[in-house]
Structure formats: structure tokens, C-alpha cells
Amino acid sequence: MEAGDRFPSLVVAMKNLSSEKTLTHCRSGVVNGSHATDGRRPIRLADLPDHVILHILSFLSITDAIKFSTVSRKFRFAWSFISNLDFDQRVFPDPDNSRLYADFVDRTLILFAAASLGGFRLWFDYEQRYSSHVDSWVLFAVRKNVEALHLRLSGYRRSYGTHVGDPYHFPLALLCHGRLRVLNLCYCSFDSKPLLHFPHLKSVFLDDVKINDEAVPNLVSGCPLLEELSLDYCYTIQHLKIVSGRLKKLELMHYQRPNSSVEIFAPNLLTLSCLHYVADKYEFRDLGSLVHAIVYFMDTQELLPRWRIVLGSVKHAKTIHLLNWWNTDLAEARNKDMIMLWNTHCLGLKTGNTKMEMFGIADFLRIAPNVITLILDIINTEAVNWKDGSERAFGKRCLEEELRGRLRHLKTVIVRSFVGSENELELLKYLLTHGVVLEKMSLLSAKPRCQFASEELLADTLKALQSFGQSFPNVEISLS
């Protein structure tokens, strides 16, 4: 049995090799069991130079990399010199035995021989009794001058809010002495003091991290090179304040707490994502450089005022992505004094495919009259068509009239997770009819993720759309 048969992930890793020249001389040989056909001597894994072997191993989890050492005596200790360590308890032979897994990580690090680390990634079903183990692992990575540190300690068997015991207390001060550029923490806590300085840190991702209000401003002020910050499920923060002249990308996700506030001052911010981050008060100052914005709020009467504030703060962005949770009860309230998106050239909408949501798309196109690219992400992928009288009565509101005169600049339509429902087809026909400068319509199938996206339905819908599109020869229509 060849190495490619014994370790399928090795084949995947070799396909991901970044250097084409690296394997040019090997393509006719045997790497995963195939034989040369042009008369040249087959080249086997053992014939590859050491730097190529290490490059291949860098794409594997540490478990697979160690298994690979059994292929040949030459590779016995090759894993101990790789540039990235990837520990994942989910793929460990006994994933439910945390004690055995912790011992495995300990032994692996003792034998590791490389002088430095590019990345250290650990996925561990953490319990407080293992805190000393994790302390030693973090210290090991910092001493190896790790550049990217990922600790996902939330546990693969747990969901948010169901953790047992306290989170891991991360020794943030250790990073002052390393060369870390990327920090990604999940299910941790830390104390951030004002005098801590992290001269190399450029990206910070905090997921389900327990910190107080002072932690984020202190961390940001201590990172002179910080360009990317992400906060996800960080419920212990009540008043979030971020002041940064260098920050370029900010993600605020999955948060709701009474009497909370958000204050952002970031004059060089290019991308802002506010995904279900619900605070009582928002204050965004000096976002003049903003180019991309994502604003996702559930469409409820309670959240509508907050949605308006956030959208109003990012309305000058060139690219805006929104949720299209549209219903008749909120239609009038949402459309009243609607914020105009005059500068938006690319509009993305996560939407269902019911008729109500088709009208919601029309409403968004009304407030963004200069859109060039429309991206629709179909997420409620049930081929729903209205049947009762009240729905049909509302459906008499003419979609064609809603779209007329609003598509003067639209050139590209992209539909992701396309099902091929009657409502989707109707909308696309109207876009074809009124998109006077429309050039391209790309439909990305929802198969195989959606049971409603049958091959037959997709084929019939595409055929009907292309038949209708014959009247618009300048528009390229494709389904993939």
C-alpha cells in the first residue's frame, strides 16, 4: 500500500503546494501510487528533498504528520522540524480522552526540534484541571517566536453558553516578549493592563472571551500595528470603546446586553461588520475611509431603531451587505424615512425566496439607486409559493412597478444558493427586463446542501430563464 492510500490527507496536502516548480521533476513519478508512463525512473517520496517533505507536512495536522513518519526511516523525525503545529482533538484517535490527548501534546512538544514556529493551532476540550498544561504549551509557542497563535478551547462537544467551569486564563503578558502577529482565542479570559505593549501584533480574534470593559481599549492601545479586530460572543463587555488610527477591519458579532454601548473612532477603517451585535447605544465617529460594511439585524420592531443608526453610520460605503428579513408588519415602518445609500455600488442581501422577500429586494434597490452589482444569498431555501387568499392579495402589488426605473446602473447579478423556485425566476425576469445595462447573471446552485434544489428544477428554471433572456442578447446567463 502506497503512502497516498494510507494517508489520504497527504494527497490533499500535496495538491495545496504553493510552488509549482517544487514538484515539476516529480510529476511523472510515484508520489501517491501512480507510475511514470514515459520511461523515466519513478520518483518516490523518499527521493524528495527534505525541504519539499517539510513543506508537504506543514499542511497536515500534527497527528497525520507523525503517522507519516512510519512511511520511511528517512522521515522518522521529519515532523519535528515543520513550521506549523496543528493539534486538533477532534481527529485524535481517542477524542473523548482529554487526559491522553494532553499527554500527547506534552510529549510532542518535548520532541519538537525546530528553532521557530510559523503557527501554533490547538483545538482542545478544555477543563480547568488542564490549565497548567495549556500554560506550558503557550509558553513553548512564545519561546519559539510563534507568529500566529490559535487557541480554540471551547470544546467540540459543547455549544456556547453550556461550558463547564471557568475559561482558560490566558497569560497575555507573555506576548510582550515574542514576535506574535496573529492572536486567535476562544473560551479564554485575560487581564489587559494599560502598560502592556505588543509591538508585532496585527490581527486579534476573540471568540467567547471573558473580559471587562477596559480590556479592549488597553489591548488596542498596546498594539501599534493592529489592523484587524474581531469580537464574537464577548458578552461580558458592557461598554465597548475602540479608538485606533490604524485599524482597518473590525468585526462585532453575536452580542446583546441591557444598558450596553458601542463607541468607535477609527478614521482609517476600511471594513466594518456588525452581525447581530445589539447594544442600546451606538456612536461611530470619523468612518470616512469605510469601503465595505456588513449590517445584519433581525427584522423586529425592537431592533429597527438600532438598525437605522448603524446603517446610517455606514451609508457612504461602496459595498454594503444586509439582511432581507421582510414582512408586511414592518414594511411601512422600515420604509418610512428610509436611509438612502447613494454611494453603494455593490449591494449584498441575505434573503429568503418568498414573494414578500422579493418585494423586500425591490425596496432595497429603491434606496440604493446606483448599484452596479447585486449579490443575493438565498438562505431560506424552501421553494415556497403563496397559496392562501391574503398572500395572493398582497402579491398583487406589482413587482415590475417596484423595479421600474431603479436599475439604471445594474450590470451584474449574482445569486448564491439558487434553488430555482418560481419566485426566484420571477424576480430574475424582472431584473432582465429593467436592467437596461445588465451584462451578466450568475446563478450558483444550492446543491448539494439543499434538498429543494433538484437537478430537474434547476435545469427547467435555467431553460425558462435562458428562453426569456433571448430577448436580451447582451446578458450572459450561467448556472454553476
What's the arrangement of secondary structure elements?
Layout: H1 3-6, H2 8-15, H3 50-57, H4 62-68, E1 84-88, H5 98-111, E2 119-123, H6 131-143, E3 148-152, E4 168-169, E5 182-186, E6 188-189, E7 203-207, H7 215-221, E8 228-232, E9 239-243, E10 249-256, E11 261-265, E12 271-278, E13 281-285, E14 292-296, H8 304-314, E15 319-324, H9 328-335, E16 346-352, H10 355-367, E17 373-380, H11 389-395, H12 399-403, E18 412-418, H13 422-434, E19 440-445, H14 455-469, E20 476-479
Helix pairs in contact: 13-14
Pfam family, one: F-box
Domain F-box: 42-91
InterPro entries: At1g61320/At1g61330-like, F-box-like_dom_sf, F-box_dom, LRR_At1g61320_AtMIF1, LRR_dom_sf
Provide a descriptive summary of the structure in words.
There is one protein chain. By secondary structure, this protein is of the alpha/beta class. It is 28% helix and 22% strand. The protein has 14 helices and 20 strands. The strands form 3 sheets. Strands 1-2-3-5-7-8-10-12-14-15-16-17-18-19-20 form a 15-stranded parallel sheet. The chain has a 3-stranded parallel sheet with strand order 9-11-13. The protein has a two-stranded parallel ribbon with strand order 4-6. It is globular, with a radius of gyration of 27 Å.
